[in-house]
Amino acid sequence: MDYFLTEEQQMIKDLARRIADEKVAPKAAHYDETGEFPWDIMKILADADLFGVYLPEEYGGMGGGVLEQCIVVEELSRACSGVAVSYAASGLGCSPILVLGSEEQKKKYITQVASGKKLAAFGATEANAGSDLAAMETTAVLDGNEYVLNGTKQWITNGGEADIYTVMAVTDKKKGPRGISCFIVEKGTPGFTFGKKENKMGIRASATRELVFDNCRIPKENLLGGKEGIGFIATMRTFDRTRPGIGAQAVGIAQGALDAAVKYSRERVQFGQSISSFQGLQFMLADMATQLEAARALVYATARMIDGGAKNFSKESAMCKLFASDTAMKVTVDAVQVLGGYGYMKEYPVEKMMRDAKITQIYEGTNQIQRHVIALELIKESASKKD
Amino acid sequence: MKIVVCVKQVPDTTEVKINPETNTLIREGVASILNPFDMYAVEEAIRIKEKVGGTVIVLSMGPPQVAEQLKETIAMGADEAILVSDRAFAGSDTLATSYALSKAIEKIADVNLVICGKQAIDGDTAQVGPEIAEKIGIPHLTYVKKIEAISETEITLERMNEDGYERVQMPLPGLITVVKEINEPRLPSLKGMMRSKKAEIPIWSAADIDADPAKCGLNGSPTWVKRIFIPEIKCQGEIFSGEPEEQVKFLVNALVGRKIVV
């Protein structure tokens, strides 16, 4: 389908695709196997200026928005979504700064992320605070001109690899969600260390680690926006902006799986003909392609809505993440089925895509949470209507 | 440091088809690319610029549509690109090509270093680079695989030969041709692509470079192709695949079987 991308967006897409095909795809199996962090590919993405596509020009970016980021994430995910999420998580990490940071914080940190010289990471999740983020236990206490952080963040993408971390911590327990603040913590700060690296089912190229804060003292200026209590709202608004990215990741994985399935079905001969001539298989491919295109259309429409300046897009953002990730799961399972026994083997890329797809239904809010967000918005909309 | 890189547009294939009547390449239906060996030359020029500063000018001779393709080199980081293009150059062999390119380089003026790929993948002559150097009257070194040190007046490098490599020092201005071992060409950057989109590629005619018509195109080409043919394949080669141990086993069996080793 033609989404009428601008000339600049098409250029971004072509470049991201070229990098995905030439640099990422040949190494996808290697990173999946070893779980090494793909620093060589991060460097290529930085040199190609892709880390800045969605960041404002005044902070060294290219001035694009959510759609530009989605385009890059989708193209990289076709080849390896572990690489794509490492790229995207840097955007997630600097998004709170972009949304609610002070001018000085934006100048200092976003410029470094835009150039790709440093990666960012976002730290909210804890062992006992997943979907229920307000249950977090990490604390920050003001002591003179410094905040003192204590606690452990869990499953942080780019943990250990990133240099800039946006971290949520409780500054006032009594206030519940409104007592959560956001802090910018730099790697190397005394008292800030990394816990174990997780051994994951999929997106194995990406680094997932604990952030451990043990009396970690950070300057008062590193309080996001210079205000306590905006951490929860920063997180929610960040996720509203970044969920289409997860949708794009899902679309990319599904596209990679569909491409592999169609190619294989034309080459594989059984009963004297290519298996693509069998209607049972044709119908599977047709459904995969149709669902995938619907998912992409929803992701792009949401991205354009956000970039167009909409005020509230929680519902649409949740919808596109939900639909695209469920679609990716379905399409990748079917792709493995199309490849049959070969699909189950690691020599072919689709089993990895199936493992990779699963996380898109879980992170940045499980799909159950997405449905909850959508339903709440529906009820709110209905309640505000005058009968 | 002023560096000129000579590039050529070639068909995107290693299986070149020849028109048996005219003995020329069939270009129809085959996409064009910049000669892959020349991309190593472009990359090396950009690296030198990044290290010691300067300007990288990409130069090509060919039909007008080459101008668009030259923008790829600007997207990589070249400062400008110039196309030499004129009806008068049609049918040029390597001598006439090097004449035209050398005239263009003289027009650019004050060039410290000219870099060419070792050869083009279509003609495979590897003559144009050295011929340019002779026409301008500067020293040249071919098959360069590493530049150790460079200043505006001198270059220290390693060049491949059949037994290994030579370490050589050459005064500049001079010309080198490079092999693929020298680097890995970079991908374009987004900012580079945007700059290249706006870039104007000047097209210089024979008159612009003050070229003598007698030395241009067919007039200046002493090469006459009598016939081009694909050599007949008389016997099939055998490829040993598998783990090194298996390959060795195959090889030993083949040698013993043919009574080469007893």
Structure in a nutshell:
The complex is a heterodimer of chains A (about 375) and B (about 260). By secondary structure, chain A is of the alpha+beta class.
How would the blueprint of this fold be written?
The complex is a heterodimer of chains A (387) and B (262).
Chain A: H1 7-34, H2 39-47, H3 66-79, H4 81-100, H5 103-114, E1 120-123, E2 139-143, E3 146-157, E4 164-170, E5 180-186, E6 192-197, E7 208-219, H6 231-267, E8 269-270, E9 273-274, H7 279-307, H8 314-344, H9 350-360, H10 367-384
Parallel strand pairs in A: 1-4
Antiparallel strand pairs in A: 2-3, 3-7, 4-5, 6-7, 8-9
Chain B: E1 2-7, E2 9-11, E3 18-19, E4 24-25, E5 32-34, H1 36-52, E6 55-61, H2 66-76, E7 80-84, H3 94-108, E8 113-117, H4 128-136, E9 140-150, E10 154-161, E11 164-171, E12 174-178, H5 190-198, E13 203-204, H6 244-257
Parallel strand pairs in B: 1-6, 1-8, 6-7, 7-13, 8-12, 9-12
Antiparallel strand pairs in B: 2-5, 3-4, 9-10, 10-11
Features:
heterodimer, A: 387 residues, alpha+beta, Butyryl-Coa Dehydrogenase, subunit A, domain 1, Butyryl-CoA Dehydrogenase, subunit A, domain 2, Butyryl-CoA Dehydrogenase, subunit A, domain 3, 3 domains, four-stranded antiparallel sheet, 10 helices, globular, B: 262 residues, alpha/beta, Rossmann fold, nine-stranded mixed sheet, two-stranded antiparallel ribbon, 6 helices, 13 strands
Assign a percent range to the helix content of chain A.
Answer: 40-55%
Number of domains of chain A: 3
CATH superfamily of chain B: HUPs
> How many DSSP helices of chain A?
10
Shape of chain A: globular
DSSP E strands of chain B, number: 13
Number of strands of chain A: 9
Low-pLDDT parts of chain B are none
Mean pLDDT level of chain B: 91
Most extensive interface, residues per chain?
A: A-B, 17 and 9 residues
**How far apart are the first and last residues' alpha carbons of chain B, in Å?**
61 Å
Classified by CATH, the class of chain B is Alpha Beta
Percent helix of chain B = 25-40%
Q: What's the number of helices of chain B?
A: 6
Largest sheet of chain A: 4 strands, antiparallel
- Name given to the CATH homologous superfamily of the largest domain in chain A: Butyryl-CoA Dehydrogenase, subunit A, domain 3
CATH overall fold name of the largest domain in chain A:
Butyryl-CoA Dehydrogenase, subunit A, domain 3
Alpha-beta content class of chain B: alpha/beta
Average of the residue pLDDT scores of chain A? 96
- Percentage of β-strand residues of chain B: 25-35%
